[in-house]
Design brief:
Structural class: alpha+beta
Shape: globular
Number of strands: 6
Strand content: 5-15%
Distance between the termini: 48 Å
Length: 287
C-alpha cells in the first residue's frame, strides 16, 4: 500500500505480478457513518452516527477508528458500554463562524456555482454551507459546491480553461464583493488554487496546448518537476487570464452573486440549474 503509486517500479505492478490496483479515496458522509457503525459493534443507532459523520468530513477510516477507540476507552474507564455521548465527547473541537464569515463562505461558493453554469460546464450546482468548522489543522472549510457536470470524454482546450475558471471563481467572487480575498482557496493539495495550477501546468507541459505544442512530462510527473521557465510563464499567464476573465463575469453579476450567497447561508443548502427548473424549494435558476 502506498500514497505514492507513481514511485512504484512499473515492473512490480505490471500484469502477472501485482496486477490488481485499488484506489481508496477518503470516505463520504454515508461511508463515514458505516465505519463508525462497524467499529462501535453496530451497537449505536445508525441515524445518530450519520449526524456525527457529517461533521467528520476529510477524516480517513483510520482516523474514525481511532475516534471510536477513544470513545471506548472513555466508556471503559467508567465501567460501561460505549454510548453516543462518548463519541460526542471525543469529536474534534468545533467553532462557529461569525455571520460575516458565513456570508463570505456563501459568496465564495456562489462564485463557483455561477461560473460553472455560466460557462456551461454543469447542468446544476449544489451549494452547502455549514455554520461550524473543525479547528484541527488541515481540516475542511464548511462551504462546498458540487456539480452535475456535462460528460466530456475528450476535453478540449476550452474545456480545460473553463475548469481553471471554475476553480478560481470562489476567490474571484470574494474579490468582487469584499475587495479582499481569504485563504480559503489555497494552502492544501486539492484546494482551488492547486487544482487550477495543476491544470494550467498540464495544459502547457504535457498536453501540448500552450503557445507552442511541446511535451515535457506526463501529467503525473509534472507535480514533482519544475518545467522550463518559458512553460512556467505560459502556465502563469493562463492562470492570470482566467482569473481576470472570471472577475469580469462576476463583476457584472454582483446582485445575483449576493442573492445566491444569502440564500445558501439562510437555508444551508441551495440548488441552481441552467434550464430554469427548480430542483428544490430553495432552488434558483440561471438563464
Amino acid at each position: 500500500a502506498t500514497n505514492f503509486p507513481e514511485w512504484v517500479d512499473p515492473a512490480i505492478i505490471r500484469a502477472g505480478r501485482m496486477e490488481k490496483h485499488f484506489k481508496l479515496s477518503l470516505p463520504d458522509a454515508t461511508t463515514r457513518a458505516e465505519i463508525l457503525h462497524h467499529y462501535t459493534g453496530n451497537a449505536l443507532p445508525f441515524e445518530s452516527l450519520a449526524e456525527l459523520a457529517d461533521d467528520l468530513e476529510g477524516k480517513s477510516a483510520a482516523a474514525l477508528e481511532e475516534l471510536v477507540r477513544s470513545a471506548r476507552r472513555r466508556a471503559r474507564n467508567e465501567g460501561r458500554d460505549v454510548e453516543l455521548g462518548d463519541l460526542r465527547a471525543v469529536m474534534p473541537e468545533r467553532k462557529s463562524y461569525a455571520p460575516e464569515e458565513l456570508f463570505r463562505l456563501g459568496v465564495h461558493e456562489a462564485g463557483h456555482a455561477l461560473i460553472a453554469l455560466t460557462l456551461k460546464c454543469a447542468r446544476s450546482a449544489t451549494i452547502e454551507i455549514r455554520d461550524t468548522f473543525d479547528v484541527s489543522p488541515g481540516s475542511y472549510m464548511r462551504g462546498r459546491t458540487s456539480y452535475d457536470l456535462f460528460e466530456d470524454n475528450l476535453p478540449t482546450e476550452t474545456v480545460l480553461l473553463n475548469r481553471i475558471a471554475m476553480s478560481l471563481a470562489g476567490m474571484a467572487a470574494e474579490a468582487v464583493i469584499f475587495g479582499d480575498r481569504s485563504l480559503g482557496s489555497g494552502g492544501l493539495v486539492g484546494s482551488d488554487v492547486e487544482h487550477a495550477t495543476s491544470i494550467a501546468r498540464r495544459l502547457v507541459g504535457s498536453y501540448g496546448l500552450g503557445d507552442t505544442p511541446f511535451f515535457f512530462a506526463t501529467p503525473d510527473k509534472l507535480d514533482d518537476e519544475r518545467m522550463p521557465p518559458a512553460l512556467e510563464a505560459q502556465a502563469m499567464k493562463i492562470l492570470r487570464d482566467q482569473y481576470e476573465r472570471v472577475l469580469g463575469i462576476l463583476s457584472s453579476e454582483k446582485d445575483q452573486l449576493i442573492a445566491l450567497a444569502s440564500e445558501a447561508v439562510a437555508h444551508g443548502k441551495v440548488v441552481i440549474e441552467r434550464d430554469a427548473g427548480l430542483v428544490s424549494e430553495n432552488a434558483a435558476a440561471v438563464d
